[in-house]
Write a structure and sequence with these properties.
Radius of gyration: 34 Å
Shape: elongated
Oligomer: single chain
């Protein structure tokens, strides 16, 4: 047991018999009645590469199990009766309460170091059912919508399943390459990448299959029809793939591991999905067209249709031609859309400024789990912050300027009362007393002639002073309490040391981030003053590497909040790099002006998503969406999806002839329904299921954000972009010269 802290403490105001002031006094008020609502006990385990598995097993099989058993003893305010199934610990607790009827029931809220990873595994298992239902519905919808149901001849269910198999294969190949290269797969990657690639792959499937249907009926040869259809949409599919591949590839350069993993897997998956779409899917579509030509039923190939019946015209395509397109080209609609776009940009600015950093701890864990209860109790009751450590390594403790810098850093940290609780527990002060031979304690502590010994021998003698010794009890020189804070190397020299301190109570994410940033600021500042190693060598040959650091601060929560030093910059960098990649890739096949329109649509989609998250936080309340790794990954993912919403329509507009209004109508009639059915409807069906996920983080960062991406993508891609093209659209161009314009 390392520390014991009482929380939410007060005293009995009716106790007035105490006349001796307690502050700065050794006297004790015997009549005071201190009251504490909770007590916090911290256990530190010996963990290294040899004992880690044993420590984790102890946390699970002993620590967690026993505390759960204790909680199971109580039923509200009463104690459960003794039963044969009770563990020895439960029997002991119940017997204690039976002997002391007046004892109040207790509740133990606890957190182990492995608690968060274990809770993530629990969330994955709980959300698995919802995710399976979500993808199953999308798969069924795609398989049915790509053809003409209920026609047995033109249903194309096997084409849809083949396309889904291609999407799954692309994701598995990307994950396999990631694992082969030794890159860790984050939970975010495994959840977001399939969603992204399914959206891209399904969109391409609809565009290719519908393009083949628009080929003139005079072309009878199946292969020629497929070739002509692919020649019409191939440029836009290729452009979109290059844009998405480059947009995700630049994200690999970021410093957030979860974002690096997502961007790498997404880039590889996009590449293979494109390759398979223009090869394997085209082959599947060719075989299916031959099946139709041979009058064989879909799925049941052994049965034939008695005669060929042309499929009906698609409902969504008719709706676009008769209602959506005529509505979009009307001037009053343009004014409304412009106002909505301005409002979304304004919300984006507000969201960029107002969204907070972090992620609510209770939102990130399973509701009513052990760790969720612990976080709630910590916020409501605990008046103590997390323990932290100041680690020094490779210092020369016999060098006076070095020691002065250490003391100065300790004093500076102690003075930061908003972020550090006094005192900073230092072995240096006790050691300095220990080495003073003239002190009253020299005989009892055995420090006569201590100066004749080298520093490392002095340290070994110091840490051997027992806590129970007279030296410790009478003079406070207790070296044994620092035995875990001083590390000797194989040569017996002091290699590294640490000093313990505690942060004040941290209630919300902003408190954690503030304390981390403030502590790191002062530590980094003083780290530059330590320029020599314990052997007198100049350490700062390379100041930018972590290996060159001689002092750093550490606490368990630092691991999770380190990213907030730079996460806003990473988000801005990735959006701008994605936009630059879109401009570069699009202008290779189209024109610079067209590339600018596509890039602007991508940027506005991602930027407006930030604003939508902000306004949803205000309207819905409760747990809110904040800046964190999941949020950044979703924003980068929205850049990739936004390309699909706009690039196909942009290229269709470029290849059309006539006035801008006529070209917009042709582009919408040609591509609008494919985009709506391929991405919008498919994703809507899958995402709506996520609203029923038991995990709060799923409902926040996946349901809310994914649904917002779909709505914004449809708005900017199918409404705002066509209206803009009516007024300032680029002129007609012949894409890839060899192809015939629409």
């Amino acid at each position: 047991m390392y520390t014991v802290v009482f929380g939410n403490s007060n005293y009995d105001p009716n106790c007035n018999t105490c006349t001796v002031p307690l502050i700065n006094s050794t006297a004790m008020c015997m009549n005071s009645n201190l009251q504490h609502e909770c007590v916090v006990v911290t256990f530190l385990l010996n963990k290294n590469k040899y004992t880690n598995p044993l420590a984790e097993k102890w946390e699970k099989d002993v620590f967690t199990k026993n505390l759960r058993d204790v909680n199971d003893v109580f039923d509200g305010e009463s104690v459960k009766p003794i039963s044969d199934s009770d563990t020895p610990l439960q029997q002991a607790v119940k017997n204690t309460y039976a002997k002391h009827p007046g004892m109040l029931p207790i509740e133990v809220n606890f957190m182990a170091e492995r608690a968060i990873p274990d809770d993530l595994d629990l969330q994955n298992s709980q959300n698995a059912g919802v995710v399976v239902i979500s993808y199953s519905l999308m798969f069924i919808y795609v398989s049915l919508a790509i053809g003409y149901v209920p026609s047995c001849l033109h249903s194309r269910f096997m084409v849809g399943m083949g396309g889904i198999f291609i999407v799954i294969s692309s994701v598995l190949i990307a994950m396999g390459i990631c694992c082969y290269m030794g890159l860790g797969m984050s939970m975010i990657s495994s959840e977001v990448v399939p969603f992204l690639i399914l959206a891209i792959g399904v969109d391409n499937m609809f565009i290719i299959s519908r393009s083949e249907r628009t080929v003139d009926s005079s072309v009878k040869d199946v292969v020629e029809r497929i070739a002509k259809g692919l020649s019409n949409v191939g440029p836009s599919i290729c452009t979109a793939a290059i844009c998405e591949f480059l947009a995700f590839l630049v994200g690999v350069m970021t410093d957030i591991p979860a974002l690096q993993s997502f961007c790498f897997v997404a880039a590889i998956a996009v590449l293979f999905d494109f390759i398979f779409q223009v090869t394997a899917f085209v082959a599947i579509l060719t075989l299916d067209n031959k099946r139709i030509k041979d009058l064989r039923y879909d799925v049941i190939l052994c049965m034939r249709a008695p005669e060929f019946k042309a499929p009906r015209k698609e409902l969504i395509k008719r709706l676009f031609e008769n209602y959506v397109t005529p509505l979009i080209v009307k001037r009053p609609v343009h004014i409304v859309v412009a106002c909505i776009a301005v409002l979304l940009v304004g919300l984006g600015i507000a969201g960029t400024v107002s969204l907070t950093l972090g992620i609510d701890q209770r939102a990130s864990v399973t509701t009513n789990s052990d760790i969720h209860k612990y976080f709630s109790a910590q916020e409501n009751l605990v008046d103590a912050g997390p323990s932290s450590y100041l680690v020094f390594r490779d210092l020369n403790y016999t060098d006076k300027p070095t020691i002065l810098n250490v003391f100065e850093l300790l004093d500076v940290l102690s003075a930061q009362t908003e972020t550090v609780q006094k005192p900073v527990y230092s072995w240096l002060k006790a050691f300095k007393m220990f080495t003073m031979e003239s002190g009253d304690w020299s005989k009892i502590c055995g420090t006569q002639g201590i100066s004749a010994f080298p520093f490392n021998e002095q340290m070994r003698k110091f840490v051997n002073i027992k806590i129970s010794s007279d030296c410790c009890l009478r003079y406070g020189i207790c070296g044994e309490q620092f035995v875990k804070d001083i590390v000797f190397d194989s040569d017996g020299e002091v290699e590294s040391t640490r000093f313990r301190f505690q942060h004040p109570p941290l209630r919300v994410q902003a408190d954690y981030i503030r304390d981390l940033q403030a502590t790191r600021y002062f530590v980094d500042k003083y780290d530059k003053k330590f320029k020599f190693t314990r052997k007198g060598e100049l350490k700062y040959k390379d100041k930018d590497t972590d290996d060159a650091r001689q002092v750093f601060a550490y606490s368990l929560f630092y691991v999770y909040f380190e990213q907030y030093h730079y996460i806003r910059g990473v988000l801005t960098q990735n959006i701008l790099l994605a936009v630059a990649a879109v401009i570069f890739a699009t202008q290779l096949i189209t024109t610079m002006l067209a590339a600018f329109f596509v890039a602007a649509t991508v940027f506005l989609t991602a930027f407006s998503l930030i604003g939508i998250c902000y306004i949803l936080n205000l309207i819905i309340g409760g747990y809110v969406i904040e800046y964190n790794a999941v949020f950044v990954v979703n924003i980068v993912m929205s850049c990739g999806l936004a390309v699909e919403f706009c690039v196909h329509l942009m290229i269709a507009f470029l290849r059309s002839r006539g006035t801008n209004v006529e070209r917009v109508k042709a582009a919408l009639n040609n591509m609008g329904s494919s985009i709506l059915v391929g991405i919008g409807s498919t994703k809507f069906i899958g995402v709506i299921v996520l609203s029923f996920a038991p995990s709060t983080i799923f409902r926040l960062y996946y349901f809310r954000m994914y649904m917002s991406v779909i709505v914004l993508g449809l708005f900017y891609g199918l409404v705002a972009l066509p209206i803009t093209l009516i007024y300032i659209g680029p002129p007609h161009v012949l894409i890839l010269v060899l192809l015939n314009p629409v």
